[in-house]
Amino acid sequence: MTKFSTFLSLLTFLSCSVNAGSFVLQDYNVVTITDFNTTSHVDGKVFVGGDLIANTKIGVGEHLDSPYIGASLQVAGNVNGNSGISVHGSMEVGTGNTISTFDNGNKVRVNSQEIQNSAGVSTNADLTNTAIDYQNELQQASTVFQNMETNSTSTYAENKKYTMTVDESLGQDDYAIFDFDDMNKFFSNSSNQEAEIIANNISDIAGIIINVSGTSINQASNNSMLGSIFSNFREKILWNFYEATTITLSSNNFMGSLLAPLATVTAMGDIDGSVGVYSLITTREIHLVETEVSPPPVVEVNEPASLLLFAFAFIALARRFTFK
Fold first, then answer.
1. Contact, 91 vs 119, CB < 8 A?
2. What Å distances lie between residue 63 and 224, 232, 287, CA to CA?
3. Where along the chain do its domains lie?
4. Best exposed site among 89, 91, 195, 246 by fewest CB in 10 Å?
5. Which residue has the higher pLDDT, 199 or 161?
6. Global pTM?
C-alpha cells in the first residue's frame, strides 16, 4: 500500500462514524412520547414522556427479575390517580411531582398516589430531555424501517386471510420486509379476517418488519393474528405504523412490537410486544416480549471531510492518467 492510499484510507475512517447500540424498544416494554393512560399493567419497564394517568390500581415491571437495572417506571410529567401503583423496582418522576412518605416512612406517595412494593422513588430533572431523545430515536427508526426495500410477498384471499410469506433466500442478519399498503383489506375489514406469516427460515433471519400505511387505523373486532410464527416468534415481529396518527386496536391480542411515533394508540386487548408510540390508552395488559428487532446502524459522513476525500481521490486519479 502506498503512502497516499494509506492516507486515503485513514481519511475515510475519520470522515465516517457509525451510530450503533441498543434500540430503545429493546430496553423498555413501553415508551410513550407524551401521556400513558391505563387501567391495567405492564410486564416490563415503562417510560412516559408526559403524564401517567392511572385511575385504577396498575402494575409495572411485574415480570422483571431482581436485581433491577435502572428505574422500572419513569414519568417525565405528572403521576395522576388515586388507586395505587405497584412498581417492581424503583421509580423516577419529573421534578413537578410531590413525593411524600407515610406509615412511619415505610411507604411513599407521589401526588397523593400510593406507590406499593416498597419502590424507591426519586426525581430526575433530565427526564424531559430523555423524552425528546426517545422521540427522535423512535421517529428515525420508523423512517429507516419504512425505507427498507420490500423483499417478501403477501397475498390476500378475499374476505378471509392475509398470508405473508418470508423469502426463503433470506438468512442471517436479513430482515423480511412486508408492505401493508392497503391496511383496509386487513385491519378495517369487518369480515372474518386473519393474518398469518409463513417463514420456514424464521430461526435464521434477524426479524420481520411489517410497514403499514394509513393515517387512521381502526381494527375490526373479528380481526386476528394466527399461526405458529405469531404464537412462537413474536420477538422477531415489528409492526411499523410510520404515518398513523390514530390507531384503535380491537380486543384480540396484538402480536409483535408496535412502533407508531406519531400516533395516539387505544388498545382494548393485550399487546404481546414492545410499544413505542406518541401516546397510549390501554385497558388490558402489555406483555414482556423482548424484541430482537432494531434498525441497522446509521453511517454518518462528515461533509467537509467527505469533500476533502473526494478532492484527494480526484487528484490521485488525475495523477494516475497524467503520469502513466
1. yes
2. 25, 18, 9
3. 24-298
4. 246
5. 199
6. 0.85
